[in-house]
């Protein structure tokens, strides 16, 4: 599945793989401990935000969160 | 299917053959709130097969419709809620959808989905023939949604089987190699 920004597709794939694994194997089983995909997400996010601005996609009311706060961030 | 399977599939719903118009999915935000629920904000891009001559006149960026989706997964209560609404350059018709996935109260291997949609034209709720038409489309889309998840679940299972088979193959090879060395 592609990203809205063509350049971001590879970053998106890496993040998705990490997230899907964590989601199914840890999060749904109720294991605490943060999301380990923070770094991948940050890189992917920067790319997506740029693409959205460039394409002028009218998204309202969405705050672009930076790194997740507090206990959700895995150690990096 | 059990709720965990459905929820995992829903997070990886695209691409699938039942929704060929979805061409892009991006995560805009994702965080776990103070009560342990996972919030995701996603942007979906869809293309409706507009003839290329039209595209060349108005430019490809205006042929896409975007849907923004907010999902909340509660792993303790086992609920997944999805709210989505379309955003487009004209915003003439808006469709807001809400889906909730919960485990079946009596059959733990099944999941219940409740789905509702609100259709508005320029902010005014429709109550006419057009509404009936779209409602039919939405309920047949609801079936499509179920088929789509079924497809994703089968694909995920096939991947797991493939992985297990190749792991077994690898183990057998290394055991054979070890046996050979021992002799």
Automatic annotation (TrEMBL), chain A:
Regions annotated as coiled coil: none
Any Gene Ontology CC annotation: mitochondrial intermembrane space
Transmembrane parts of this sequence: none
Gene Ontology MF terms: phosphatidic acid transfer activity
Catalytic reaction list: a 1,2-diacyl-sn-glycero-3-phosphate(in) = a 1,2-diacyl-sn-glycero-3-phosphate(out)
Recorded superkingdom: Eukaryota
Keyword Transferase: no
One Gene Ontology biological process: phospholipid translocation
Protein family membership: Belongs to the TRIAP1/MDM35 family.
Protein's name according to its UniProt entry: TRIA1 inhibitor
Taxonomic lineage: Eukaryota, Metazoa, Chordata, Craniata, Vertebrata
Automatic annotation (TrEMBL), chain B:
Pfam families noted in UniProt: PRELI
Annotated GO CC locations: mitochondrial intermembrane space
Signal peptide feature range: none
Superkingdom of origin organism: Eukaryota
Coiled-coil portions: 146-173
Protein's name according to its UniProt entry: PLD3B protein
Domain PRELI/MSF1 positions: 1-161
Keywords of the record: Coiled coil
Cross-referenced PROSITE patterns: PRELI_MSF1
């Amino acid at each position: 599945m592609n990203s809205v920004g063509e350049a971001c597709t590879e970053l998106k794939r890496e993040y998705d793989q990490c997230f899907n694994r964590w989601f199914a194997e840890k999060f749904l089983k109720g294991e605490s401990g943060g999301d380990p995909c923070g770094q991948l997400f940050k890189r992917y996010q920067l790319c997506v935000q740029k693409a959205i601005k460039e394409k002028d996609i009218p998204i309202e009311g969405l705050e672009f969160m930076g790194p997740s706060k507090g206990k959700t961030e895995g150690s990096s | 299917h059990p709720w965990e399977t459905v929820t995992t599939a829903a997070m990886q719903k695209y691409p699938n053959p039942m929704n060929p118009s979805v061409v892009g999915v991006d995560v805009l935000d994702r965080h776990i709130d103070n009560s342990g629920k996972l919030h995701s904000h996603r942007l979906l891009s869809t293309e409706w097969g507009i003839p290329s001559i039209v595209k060349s006149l108005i430019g490809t960026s205006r042929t896409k419709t975007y849907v923004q989706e907010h999902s909340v997964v509660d792993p303790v209560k086992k609920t997944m809620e999805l709210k989505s609404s379309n955003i487009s350059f004209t915003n003439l018709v808006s469709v807001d959808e809400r889906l909730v996935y919960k485990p079946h109260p009596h059959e733990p291997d099944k999941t219940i989905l409740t789905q509702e949609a609100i259709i508005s034209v320029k902010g005014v709720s429709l109550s006419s023939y057009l509404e009936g038409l779209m409602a039919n489309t939405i309920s047949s889309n609801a079936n499509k949604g179920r088929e789509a998840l079924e497809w994703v679940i089968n694909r995920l299972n096939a991947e797991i089987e493939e992985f297990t088979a190749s792991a077994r193959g690898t183990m057998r090879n290394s055991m054979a190699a070890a046996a050979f060395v021992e002799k």
